[in-house]
Amino acid sequence: MRINVRVIPRSNKNVVAWQEGGLKVHLTVPPVNGTANAALIALLARSLAVHKRDIQIVHGATGRLKIVEIKGISAETVERKVKGLQ
């Protein structure tokens, strides 16, 4: 399953929120040398209860707008889990 993700680095705290059509993710780390991408994958894995190896950034690795592929989970399940975190 692929999902659109908007990343906001250098935030006050790590937060995953459902936004119409995808996810909005706030990260505390700066976007330097791939640290934000690694933090994004770790946060999504923890929030969605999947392994980090099942999450891959397929488009937008250097930008704020990304397309992320998550294996073994449906879009409805992602939406339900993220809305449960809020």
What ranges have pLDDT less than 50 throughout 5 or more consecutive residues? none
Integer average pLDDT: 93
Q: Helix/strand/pairing class, anyone?
A: alpha+beta
The major sheet is characterized as: 5 strands, mixed
Task: Write out the CATH superfamily name.
Answer: YggU-like
Task: Give the C-alpha Rg.
Answer: 12 Å
Overall tally of structural domains: 1
The neighbouring-strand order within the major sheet is 2-3-1-5-4
Account of the 3D structure:
- This protein has 86 residues and is of the alpha+beta class.
- Helices cover 29% and strands 33% of the residues.
- The chain has 2 helices and 5 strands.
- It is globular and about 30 Å long.
- The two termini are 22 Å apart.
- 17% of the residues are buried.
Question: How are the SSEs placed, and which strands pair?
Answer:
Elements: E1 2-8, E2 15-19, E3 22-26, H1 35-48, E4 55-59, E5 65-70, H2 75-85
Parallel strand pairs: 1-3
Antiparallel strand pairs: 1-5, 2-3, 4-5
